[in-house]
Amino acid sequence: MSLPFMDIFKDWASEYDNFVTGQDPEYKDVFVNYDFMIAQAVKYAKGDVVEFGPGTGNLTNYLLQQGLNVRAIEPSEEMAAIGEKKTGITFERGDFLNFKQQPADTFISSFAFHHLTDTEKDIAIGKYAELLNEGGRVIILDTIFNSEEEKQSMIEHYTSLGFNNLVEDLNREYYPLKETMESIASRNGFDYHDTQLNRFAHLQILEKKTIKKPFDLIGHTPMIEITAFPLNKGNRIFAKLEHHNLGGSVKDRLGLNIIMKALDRGDIKSGQVVEATAGNTGIGLALVCQKFDLKLRVYVPEKFSVEKQSIMRALGAEIINTPTEKGMLFAREEALKYAQETGAFFTNQFESPDNPSSYEELANEIIADVGRVDMIVAGAGSGGTFTGLAHYFKDAHKVIVEPEGSILNGGASGSHRTEGIGVEKWPDFLPKDLIDAVETISDIDAFTKVSELAKLEGLMQGSSSGAALQAALNQQQHFTNQNIVVIFPDASDRYLSQAIFNIKGE
């Protein structure tokens, strides 16, 4: 900070509180609504706070009253003496550029940042970017100008009023243009938000940008509205696009939860995990096993999607193919047998209570996306997605979706082209009274909806998504004015070998 300002601080120290309370007419416009402005600034502060230029401690007191941990850094002994007496804490000696550097959640300043040149402002913001914790922010309440023309106009206005001290400040100190602050923020990795609170003062919030890591891509998937299909009066269909998860399906949520819970309990003792799956659960498990250096062995009926099997192998899983005609029950028996023989951890997605609990965050996301949910529609493979959501949306009309060849509606177990859903025995964790309706969808209807989603909505979805949409369209005919949420588990690209866009399966 430029040394000449230290003399200014000596002159201002005893008069500063008079200025901010409007008792000096020259500075009344600068500080009008002062208490309101610093209260607004404090709303954005969090955690460990570093306040630069606390002066006489007005902002500091607001921060302390919010229970925040505050380090107040003040270069002026005269200002600090007043501020320490007012706040009851010790001010550190230093300034925006010279201070004991340690991590913080918030850097904040009121009516002091203009003492830095634009180059110094850039350097300071760069320092704060390095020290801020995840999600940290810089808060600057100070005078800035929207344009050079605005600044010159104000100088002329206050010159005509004879406010010579204020005009001297405007000419001498380093009040930046808004575009300068935006540029400094962007260069140093911040999103910039500005709110003008009076003729002079702007509240500037610099939010540190965060670069996501791969596992941050599990969850928080998009919600879109389906509009290309005729609906009863007032009905709306919303689809949760789960192929945006890291591994490309809703089962990433399961893989993450089931392994994390097992690790927390100490259930994984041999370093090896085993499961029986058509593919998506295996992909989700492979991602998490890779992260924690666990070996994964997966039993898959041999004629299931070669794309999903290739993805599992690419992620490090060992694939054991079982005869397709013996179905998933046989694959599960083989996985259990292997676990019993070797001590590998059997994730047992079809029976583990950790399966339905994997979808609590999905339910929270749906509420955040849509608000009111009148109907929830989800397919049943293991039954975990439906069960988890049904427990959460107790007052909604809950529709479970299966293909022909699944047993939930009392039909016989048999083969089907629709992958990812369909059960051969009732899931242990699924109470029947959670279900309001079972929709059994033929392969041809599921694949037809896959093609229609592509042609009418530009959505490339898997066959279980097509079945879920058909189920939602069937059910909505009995209702009006409903918000209907449908889970689209994955995308079509992992089923191309299964001729997913060929309705007749030729």
From TrEMBL:
GO terms for biological process: cysteine biosynthetic process; methylation. Residues 216-490 form the Tryptophan synthase beta chain-like PALP domain. One of its GO terms (molecular function) is methyltransferase activity. It comes from the Bacteria. SUPFAM superfamilies: S-adenosyl-L-methionine-dependent methyltransferases (SSF53335), Tryptophan synthase beta subunit-like PLP-dependent enzymes (SSF53686). Its cofactor is pyridoxal 5'-phosphate. The keyword Methyltransferase applies. Keywords: Amino-acid biosynthesis, Cysteine biosynthesis, Methyltransferase, Pyridoxal phosphate, Transferase. Residues 49-136 form the Methyltransferase domain. Homodimer. Belongs to the cysteine synthase/cystathionine beta-synthase family. This is Methyltransferase domain-containing protein.
